[in-house]
Amino acid sequence: MGTTKGYRGLGMEGPIATWYAKNTGRDLGRFTHIAQRITEPVRPGSTILEVAPGPGYLAIELARLGYAVTALDISTSFVKIARENAAAAGVTVEVRHGNASAMPLPADAFDAIVCVAAFKNFTDPLGAINEMHRVLRPGGEASIFDLRKDASRQAIEEEVRGMHLSAWNAFVTRWTFELLLLKRAYSRDDLERMAAQSRFCQADVALDGIGLELRLKKKRAA
User: Fold this and answer.
1) What pLDDT is stored for residue 169 in this prediction?
2) How far is the C-alpha of 52 from the C-alpha of 71, rounded, in Å?
3) Which helix (H) or strand (E) holds 169?
4) What is d(CA 153, CA 171) in angstroms, rounded to the nearest whole number?
5) Which pLDDT belongs to residue 170?
6) At the N or C end, where does the chain have fewer CB atoms within 10 A?
7) How many CB atoms lie within 10 A of CB 107?
8) Burial of 93 (0-12, 13-18, 19+ CB in 10 A)
9) What is the predicted pLDDT for the residue at 21?
10) pTM of the predicted protein model
């Protein structure tokens, strides 16, 4: 089940993971926004899984809101960083190591699932969606937020300016967006087609700035 390498491109380990954690930590407001969005239909105290949490900023925000949070990442560096960040924030997040397309988690375990800025890097995206379906409880929802393939250069420039990075880090981030990430990103049609092939069978896609959100709901038993 799954693949031997669960990610496309360079692995987020060691200094690369540390650099990413430092730069994404400069804009924590977006994690608050995403947390509010995905918890609107979820009762307080519910179980939430974050797939590919990276440094764990969103998982920490969800835990602060009173949810039981599990985070699963294929990067051993991010697992360590997320655990340290959760401990420093004084919240409980169960951070586990594992592949999104072969989750070491039980079926029907979570009320909601979220994945931010990582889906385009999965080598088995359909397998990851099907695993989300497996571990999601009937009636639960999964939200995948990521870069959209048709994001314009101007929109990316505005996004990077909003990150409040140093000149050098802004240059590296723009270069990463334009030369690496856009090539891996999916269009709205790509995601709708993938969802139709998955166990969810269908999905809604909402566009937002340079990104999009794929919304998936697991049907209740008839």
Assistant:
1) 73
2) 7
3) helix 167-176
4) 13
5) 66
6) C
7) 12
8) buried
9) 83
10) 0.85
Give the dihedral of Cα atoms 106, 111, 117, 123; nearest 10 deg.
30
Query: For domain 14-150+186-217, which architecture applies?
Result: 3-Layer(aba) Sandwich (3.40)
Q: Supply the pLDDT for residue 3.
A: 40
In the chain, the largest separation of any two C-alpha atoms, in whole Å, equals 56
Low-confidence stretches of the chain (pLDDT beneath 70): 1-11, 151-152, 155-156, 159-165, 170-171, 173-181, 222
Q: What is the pLDDT of residue 1?
A: 37
- The answer to whether residues 2 and 102 touch, using CB atoms and an 8 Å cutoff, is yes
Q: Which two structure tokens, joined as six digits, stand for 36?
A: 């509010």
Sequence spans of domains, the chain: 14-150+186-217
* Helix pair 57-64, 29-39: axis angle to 10 deg: 50
**CA–CA gap between residue 199 and residue 214 (Å, rounded):** 14
The token pair at 147 is 């870069």
Can you read off the two tokens belonging to residue 64? 């602060």
d(CA 178, CA 123): 20
